[in-house]
Amino acid sequence: MLLRQPCSLSPLPSPLSPSPLFSRGVSVLSIADQQRLLTLARLALEARVRRDREPVPKIDGALAIECGAFVTIRCGEELRGCLGRISCDMRLADVVVHLAAAVADSDPRFAPVDVAELDILHIEVSVLTPARDVASIAEIEVGRHGLIVERGMRRGLLLPQVATEHGWDAEQFVEHTCVKAGLARDAWRHGARISVFEAQVFGESQNVA
Q1: Are residues 123 and 167 in the same domain?
Q2: In a domain, 17, yes or no
Q3: Which of 7, 108, 177, 183 could bridge to 147 as Cys pair (CB 3.0-4.6 Å)?
């Protein structure tokens, strides 16, 4: 299942600076692995737009880990598409290729990407840890945790960087995630399930052309 994400609109972080969010026993992707994933994402995006074959990734090491991810594309600071997958049933390289291709034309908020846009788009990848339930919002660390709120068939997700860049505290973060799920802002007080995850976020430099 692909998830849409209202990603932040700040400039992309450098792929040369591993995020401290992906820590505490979880391996940080090396700079080389980040660059490999960004290259795969770029090739997959361009292949979908140009109607070419998707790249077949060489999968080894960290890229063979089964985990979730999001792929975001922007034009300058404007969001152009963002799709993700939180289930841990595909290898990371395959997830990134799948999402980078899909975000070219499958985010319903945006028109399909045109060939003329490819040189001015830049790509960001967020690699996710497995989610875990929390019993209290006191367990949520803004700037480190992303959130998932669920009740019944409704589910909303916000990446860790969203709360930081909007200046939300933990309660505001949960409220906005409830709204993302199509629930009342205070649904977390009335039985909605809250889960947290971490993300390592890295992206292309602005001058990708």
Answers
A1: no
A2: yes
A3: 177
CATH of the domain at 41: 3.30.700.20
Strand segments, DSSP code E, in the chain are: 3-4, 69-75, 78-85, 121-128, 132-133, 146-151, 154-158, 193-197, 199-203
SS3 label, residue 145: coil
- At 78-108, the pLDDT tens digits run 999 999 999 888 999 999 999 999 999 999 9
Q: How many domains does the chain have?
A: 2
Residue 207 in domain: no
81 Ramachandran zone, left/alpha/beta (phi>0; psi -120 to 50) = left
Residue 41 phi/psi, 5-degree rounding, is: -65, -45
In a domain, 206, yes or no: no
- Predicted model pTM: 0.80
Check: CB of residue 192 under 8 Å from CB of residue 149: yes
Helix (H, G, I), strand (E, B) or coil at 127: strand
Structural domain that includes position 169 = 132-197
pLDDT band at residue 19 using 50, 70 and 90 as cut-offs:
very low
